[in-house]
Design goal:
Blueprint lengths: L1 H8 L4 H9 L3 H10 L7 H8 L3 H11 L12 H15 L4 H32 L4 H44 L8 E10 L2 H5 L4 H18 L5 E6 L2 E6 L2 H18 L4 E13 L2 E4 H12 L5 E4 H6 L5 E9 L8 E8 L4
Parallel strand pairs: 4-6
Antiparallel strand pairs: 1-3, 1-4, 2-3, 4-5, 6-8, 7-8
Length: about 350
């Protein structure tokens, strides 16, 4: 009865309760209401309080994935802050089309994050299907969990943005012949699993996690000094080394090891240039370049920039042209090369 009373207090109709009970969805319904606070504002009031026109508020909400409703008091204080965010971006003088383009990217990717979190909740809901009182106790904590997840996401976005801006600053300094403390010539490699996103739609989250963990383990084992494993980012790893030959060997070994282990196809992209270490990470043009190169590399192959290829010992490695590519965020077309070991009898 506790679950039913809670839902009735939240304004759920008898018909909704009847359907949810018939479909064994009382726990789901309870969680939906725990995660969705009652609205306080209509779209017109959001507009009045923020100074953003009704039409722009609707357009902003649609872009960021929030959705625009005309049905009474649908929105809460969080939505009010979202609309204020658009005004703050404008007050900074940022390009209007760029603001909305970034919002659309964020909106699309937030659904991916939400899907992953939902998969975890579904496991708990299935376990509590025949025990709605357990679901009631769990729902009390759900909003707190959601707020905690939001804090994590906000921190990660802010941290990543700071890192990106620092990389941009390093690039500007390099182009202006300015000296940046700690800057050094280094090779940067990104290796990622091809088809990892599609795999996530076909296997359980736990199985997907084990694939990512295995990649992290292989990279850790194969990143021998002077090569260093900087970080694992889901389905990708980042390696750096001041020794181009050592980095090339590690990348080739990692691609082959993933193949031997039966992991999804791995590919790697490597760039060379000036970067700056900070708080265990690296920033600069080669970091950005390597992350773009890996996106055009074929499965089971290592592709490098011309600058990196020029640093390699051609007695130890062969290379073949991989074409000229226009990489996202890079102005000029880049000549890339596929590389491999020379096996000397």
């Amino acid at each position: 009865m506790g679950v039913l009373n809670t839902l009735i207090e939240d304004g759920v109709s008898i018909d909704e309760l009847r359907v949810a009970s018939r479909d064994n969805r009382l726990a789901h319904l309870l969680l939906e209401h725990a995660l969705a606070p009652k609205g306080r504002y209509g779209i017109d009031e959001i507009s009045r309080k923020t100074g953003v026109t009704v039409e722009d508020t609707r357009r902003w909400f649609r872009a960021i994935g929030r959705g625009a409703s005309e049905d009474g008091t649908f929105y809460d204080d969080g939505d009010l802050d979202l609309a204020r965010g658009l005004k703050q971006y404008r007050d900074l003088g940022l390009d209007e089309s760029g603001i909305f383009a970034a919002a659309r990217v964020l909106g699309r990717n937030l659904w991916t994050v939400a899907d992953a979190a939902d998969a975890l909740l579904q496991e708990r809901l299935e376990a509590a299907r025949d025990h709605p009182e357990v679901a009631l106790r769990y729902a009390v904590e759900v909003r707190r969990i959601a707020d905690f997840e939001a804090q994590i996401l906000a921190h990660l976005i802010a941290t990543t943005l700071r890192h990106q801006l620092r990389s941009d600053a390093v690039g500007i300094a390099r182009d202006s012949n300015m000296q940046v403390r700690g800057a050094q010539e280094i090779g940067v490699c990104f290796a990622d699993l091809v088809g990892f996103t599609l795999l996530g739609e076909q296997v359980a989250p736990a199985d997907l996690g084990r694939v990512a963990e295995r990649l992290d383990g292989l990279a850790t084992d194969l990143a021998l000094a002077p090569v260093r494993l900087v970080k694992t980012i889901g389905d990708a790893v980042m390696l750096v080394s001041p020794d181009p030959n050592a980095l090339a060997y590690s990348a080739l070994d990692l691609v082959q090891a993933a193949r031997t282990e039966g992991l999804p196809p791995l590919r790697a992209g490597i760039a060379w240039g000036t970067a700056v270490p900070s708080a265990g990470d690296w920033f600069g043009r080669p970091v950005n370049m390597a992350s773009r190169v890996v996106a055009v590399a074929p499965s089971h192959e290592v592709v490098v920039t011309g600058e990196f290829y020029d640093e390699l010992d051609t007695d130890e490695f062969w290379g073949e042209p991989a074409g000229s590519h226009r990489l996202k965020g890079i102005d000029a077309p880049q000549e890339l090369f596929g590389i491999g070991r020379r096996y000397v009898a």
